[in-house]
Every structure is written in C-alpha cells, then in structure tokens.
Automatic annotation (TrEMBL):
Protein name, as recorded: Tetratricopeptide repeat protein 38
Keyword field contains Repeat: yes
PANTHER family cross-referenced by the UniProt entry: TETRATRICOPEPTIDE REPEAT PROTEIN 38
UniProt lineage: Eukaryota, Metazoa, Chordata, Craniata, Vertebrata
Organism field: Scophthalmus maximus
Keyword Repeat attached: yes
Family: Belongs to the TTC38 family.
SUPFAM superfamilies: TPR-like
Superkingdom of the organism of origin: Eukaryota
Keywords recorded for this protein, A-Z: Repeat, TPR repeat
Length: 465
C-alpha cells in the first residue's frame, strides 16, 4: 500500500488511534476512507472492493475495518439489514468484536452509530457521530457518515453546522482537508446561502479541481438560481475533472441534464440519460444513480416527452428493491418507475409493504415517518398516475412543508413540487387550478427567470382561471 496512506503511527499522531497493530490495515482503512470522500473507485489501490477484501485479510479482527466496510454498505441504502441476513450478520459481528476487545471510546462510539443506523434510527446515529466530533473534530469518517445521515433526514441546517463546527480544527496539512470545502458548501446551499456556497466550493476546487462533490455543489447553486447557461458552461468546462469520480459522475450528469430540461431542450437531456445516467445506473445499481434515473424520466414525462421503453428497462433495476424500505426517498422513486412501467402489482406491493411497516415502526425513523408523510406521498403518485388529479393535489398540498423530511436535496425534491403544480392545474376543481397558479407565482419569486416556470405559467394562463 502506498506510503501516502497513514500507518498506525500516523493515525496515532493525529489523535485518531486505531486498535490494530497492522500498518497495512491502517493504510487500507485510509484508502477506503479517501475513496469515500473523493467519490471514486481508485483502481490504483484496487477500488473499494479490492481494499475491503485486502483489509479483512490484513487484520480480520480490526474493529474500525468492520465499521467502515459495514457502515459504507449501510449508508449506500441499497440493502436492508431487515431482509439481508448477511448484512445484519456483519453488523452483529462488528458489535461482537467491539465487545471482545479493549478499544478506544471513539471506536466504541463508531460501532454504536453503525448499529443504530442499521436499525433505521438515523437521528440517534447522527447524534453519536456528532459526539465523536466534539472530542475528535478531524475524524473524517464520523463527519462523512453524519453528512450522509443528515442528507437522508433532510436535516439541512444540521448538515451545514456539522461541518462549520469542525472547520477551525482542520489544517491544510491534514489529509483530505480541501474536501471539507465541498461538504460545507453543500450545507450552505441547502440552507439557501447560494453566494457563499459557490464561493466556498470554488475555493476548494482551486486546491483540488477533481473534487466532484464541490463541483456538484456549484451545479446545485446554478440549478436553484436558474443560471442555466452558467451551469452548462461550468459542467462542460470541468467534465474531465469530475467524471473520473465514478461514484458521483452519474449524479453530476443528472444535474447537467436538468439544465437542458429547464431550457426545454429535451433531446439533449435524453441523450445524457441514455449515454450516462441510465448506463451507469444499470452498471452500478447504486441508489443515487437509480433515483436520479427515475426522477429524470418522471420530469421528462411531466414535460410531455415520450419516454418509450425506458421505464421498463429501469424497472429491472428498481423492482428487486421493492421490499427494502430503507428510505422513503428511495421508495417514492421506485414507485415512479413501477407506475411508469404500468407494473401495477409491483406498485401495490411496495405501497402495502410500506403501510405494514408504518403500523409497527419500532425505532426505525423512516418507518415512523411513513404513516404521516411517506404513504400519503406514495398514494399521491398513484392517484396522479390514475388521472385523479384532485386527489393527488389534496394529498400532496398539506405535506408541502414536510417533504424535506423524506431526505434528499432541494433540487431532488423539486420533482414533488412540480408534481403538485401539475396535479393542481390538471384538476377539474377551479380552486385547485387557482392554487396551481399561486404556487407558480411563489416559484417564480423564489427562482426568477426559470424557463420551466414560465412554460407552466403560460399553461396556467390558458386555463382562464
């Protein structure tokens, strides 16, 4: 393993001692952490899988090795420990190893957080990661896991403040230092500090041009401010830098395509969908890639674009996850696909499964939220698909200020705002049509000069409300 990765002594010198005597295990842990932060499978070190396999060989009893391997699978949300016995067993094994060894309090907290997350208790897991950061503000694994946890909770302010609290403790010589700029920028933009978010992200990119998360943050800024030409130019000019971050590349291409959808350039958007978004989604089956593909088809369909057989192709990726119910955000996107593919049995199974879990959610935060937010939102998608636009409006409108709770970003959740507007305008009730127009006026005030809003405004005016 390359000398640039930290061995036992280097971790100890940073105040982040790891309970293993294997320098190789320490370096492999660092290699996995680095790939996680950089959103890339670094083939020069064997990629994620190669490093994980080598780490387990180097020290099979290394608790933090189990924490990072199992934790990464959990935060990927592609598998449910409720259904996947191998993953549930990996969590138990991590806990058992921790109980049988004399490890540091910090490492013990990491184990506790992973166990909580595996039970769906995202808020408490984030609390534990924050406890770690109080005493160890340069623990990047705790910071990144918390960042992802807040993302799934839609906890935008906490996502921002979590990074703000530790920033002064990081110095340029600490590995991965520049990547904090991208993390902080994302929290800033999700709390609508757009100018500051852009400034901070560009500071990070001046040091590390290949920081795909910082690029992604700037892409969000231009999306939320409807600076579409600026966004297109930015993404194209930096494509060679960020496309090597294969774990995030599809998502960045998705942002690129959103600019085209906003501008009404649907063929350009479809070309990105076919050549990048779906191709990568099919290859990786990652949940981020999958929800992006789902959302993109739904947005195009709302714009009146024929998506042909693309729904059925995407269904092959989403259908195996119909019973997972790891996050409501995932569930809603899987439902978009089964509805789009006219696969009523899969749609019904997903909705019924979610209803059942909502009855006895236990400590699972997503299942607790299912009854009041998740199921009604899923039902609204179903009503819309069946042409019951007034029913979809009545389900979605009361939830519009709770939608952040399902997780994701403002840009990702905007699909539900668009869906509400379309449902209201298509409803046979005059009150709903007026509501749709009100929502468009509000949208125009928040995001001036949006061509998409302009097109919908023209449609609303044609209703002669």
């Amino acid at each position: 393993m390359a000398s640039s990765f930290r061995d036992c002594e280097a971790w100890r010198a940073e105040g982040l001692q790891l309970s293993t005597t294997s320098n190789e295990a320490c370096k492999l842990y660092d290699a996995i952490l680095s790939q996680y932060v950089k959103w890339t499978n670094d083939e020069t070190v064997g990629g994620f899988e190669g490093c994980m396999s080598a780490l387990q060989t180097a020290d099979p009893y290394f608790v933090m090795g189990h924490v990072i391997i199992t934790g990464l699978e959990l935060v990927g949300t592609a598998s449910s420990p409720r259904l996947n016995e191998r993953l549930a067993g990996a969590v138990r094994r991590t806990v058992e190893l921790a109980d049988s060894q004399d490890i540091s309090p910090r490492e013990r907290l990491h184990v506790k957080a992973v166990e909580l997350f595996s039970h769906g208790n995202f808020p408490k897991a984030c609390d534990v990661w924050e406890d770690i950061l109080v005493d160890h503000p340069t623990d990047m694994l705790a910071l990144k896991f918390a960042h992802d946890g807040y993302f799934y909770l839609g906890a935008q302010t906490r996502m921002r403040d979590s990074v703000a609290r530790v920033l002064p403790h990081w110095k340029p010589h600490i590995p991965l230092y520049s990547y904090l700029k991208g993390l902080y920028s994302f929290g800033l933009l999700e709390t609508h500090f757009y100018d500051q978010a852009e400034k901070v992200a560009l500071e990070g990119l001046s040091v590390t041009p290949g920081d795909a998360w910082a690029v992604h943050s700037v892409a969000h800024v231009y999306e939320m401010t409807a600076e579409l030409d600026k966004g297109l130019k930015f993404m194209e000019s930096r494509e060679k830098d960020w496309q090597v971050s294969d774990v995030l590349a599809s998502h960045n291409y998705w942002h690129w395509a959103l600019y085209f959808i906003e501008k009404g350039q649907y063929e350009a958007a479809l070309q990105i969908y076919d050549s990048q978004v779906f191709r990568r989604c099919k290859a990786t089956e990652s949940m981020l890639d999958t929800v992006d593909a789902s959302s993109m088809l739904c947005r195009l369909e709302m714009e009146g674009v024929c998506t042909k057989d693309r729904w059925r192709e995407l269904l092959q990726v989403t259908r195996p996850h119909s019973d997972d119910h790891v996050t409501l955000f995932n569930d809603l996107h899987f439902l978009m696909v089964s509805l789009g593919a006219k696969e009523s049995g899969t749609s019904q199974r997903l909705l019924e499964g979610l209803r059942e879990l909502a009855k006895e959610p236990g400590e699972n935060q997503q299942h607790q939220l299912a009854g009041t937010v998740g199921v009604p939102m899923c039902q609204a998608l179903t009503e819309y698909d069946q042409g019951n636009y007034s029913g979809a409006t009545e389900l979605l409108y009361p939830l519009r200020y709770r939608m952040a709770d399902i997780g994701g970003s403002d840009a990702q959740r905007d699909i539900f705002n668009q869906l509400l507007i379309h449902a209201a305008m298509k409803s046979e009730k005059k009150h709903h049509q007026k509501l749709g127009r009100c929502l468009l006026v509000e949208r125009d005030a928040a995001r001036p000069n949006s061509p998409l809003t302009g097109r919908l405004m023209q449609r609303a005016l044609a209703l002669h409300i």
